[in-house]
Design brief:
Low-confidence stretches: 164-176
Strand content: under 5%
Helix content: over 70%
Mean pLDDT: 81
Order of helices and strands: EEHHHHHHH
Distance between the termini: 69 Å
Radius of gyration: 21 Å
Amino acid sequence: VSQSRYYEDNMGYSYEYRPMVLVSFAIEHQFFNDNPKVGHLINLLLYLLTVICLYKFLRLVFLESNPILPIIATLVFAAFPLHTEVVSNIKNRDVILAVLFSLLSGIHLIRYYSSGNLVSLLFSSVLFLVSLLSKSDSIIFLVIFPLLCIVTGKQETKQRKTKGILGSQKNNIIFT
């Protein structure tokens, strides 16, 4: 993959450097040639994977709240009419990949923040880089992720306090 722009034409339209999208198209072309049906199917499968990751992400973020909330939010996201253009237009794979890798990065960031496992932080960083290489609009997650850490941190503190209280009650019950 060269460092050329994602798309350029004679009229002056061009998009920034998006190597992950070019890699995905190259792999697709290697196995299926120029079959647009396969491209649409791949976009649909990537979108379904994105919806699953969104649900997992929301379950981690809203750990303390009603478990129905992530399901409803995910269903609204999945059925949102504007997403049909992203899924049906092969050119928009960059958007799907950027959101998918950003969500995966967020999932690993929450795992790092709750467990302190440095491998999760490494995965989160690499996935975020892949997201940026899919589409630079992912840069907004540099604002979202710190907010995510604040929310997750408050939940962790609540859980520790609750576990501490329950743990001391259990010990008192056992030893009395």
